[in-house]
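Summary for the steering committee. One of the milestones for this cycle was to obtain a three-dimensional model of the protein with 4-nitrophenyl phosphate bound, which we needed before selecting residues for the alanine scan. The sequence and ligand used are listed below.
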Amino acid sequence: MSHKVSVIFVCLGNICRSPTAHGVFRQLVIDEGLEHEILIDSAGTAAWHVGKHADQRSIRTAQGRGIDMMDLRARKVSLEDISDFDYVLAMDDSNYMDLQELSLHEDKNKIRMFLDFSKEYSETEVPDPYSGGQAGFNHVFDMVSSASSGLLADIKAKYL
Ligand code: 4NP
């Protein structure tokens, strides 16, 4: 059976924020038995970490909250991704602008800020935790969890 809807999470390196979103949202979808309905992926706007695991700090933070993302490998986002996926979700303004620049005219309205789906956070950006400490990774996880719930509610209302 083919999926009814598809989601791709996009950050800069595809080793911290977007794999965290991929892992958290995937678990939420599995918990609700919707893994055959919703296709999930993640990618980065930069190619620096292509082929690598997620950052160890992101993996450990997620593992501490019951989320396994050991299987994920970094890749670079493409124009085809933006055409193929229904939801193209940027973590920050810079990712959003890079995606807008890369995309075809007819796909531009699919590109959204992921945190806009959160009911708990009024900010719009999931901040880059790469050069900071553990608190930043915890903050990313909390934001991503909140936005994931809102995203699933949006998908259920529109597609399922
Ligand atoms: P991400 O974090 O975009 O959340 O994966 C980053 C990862 C790596 C770098 C920057 C941000 N970097 O400069 O290598």
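Key point for the committee: DSSP finds five helices and four strands in the chain.
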